[in-house]
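hey can u check if this looks right to u? its 193 residues, i copy pasted from the old doc so theres a chance i mangled smth
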Amino acid sequence: MRGSRFHTTVGSAIYHTVGDRAQAVNQLAIDFDHAYADLGSAVGVLPYEGSGERVKKHPDWFVWWNAAASPLFAAWSKFKAEQTSGDTTGPGGSWIAYANRWATDYPVYESWRQRLIDLRASAHRMGIPLSTSEPQALPTTTIEDVEAVAQNVAQKAGSAVDTLGSVLKVALWGGVVLGGAYVAAQIYKDVRR
């Protein structure tokens, strides 16, 4: 789904470009920022009103934050800095970020999205309330879009075949029952004679 959040693209790509990678980093940055604010305020680690009471009320949430959330957010911040123009150690810092995005395989971005989804699931299992939505889908290529459509058609065809199979089973058993009733009626009729 190209251009889902930031811009509209005319046409499609058959491979992930550096632009796709930049868009993926931007989408992930928004999703990680929202998750950080959401989880941090729910756990009580962000200095909002009542945060101290939340930490006292749910000390296990604070332990979870330190063990699971905080390390992930720190690792994400480092990765994001490498992927954006945050690396300004010398002249052409944005060129360094461009080279980093070019050298990074696209599944790495997908794994960051999955790590955030897993973190949210872990928070949900801990009972931590979440008010933000799931992370947005990352840009896809034409090939991935065609594969998704093919899978969707196959699933619908499979469910149609399952439904047809169920109808045929009911019809078959109905025929067996009706046939059995007819045979029983014929036997009864012959016995009465």
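The chain has two domains: 18-139, 141-193.
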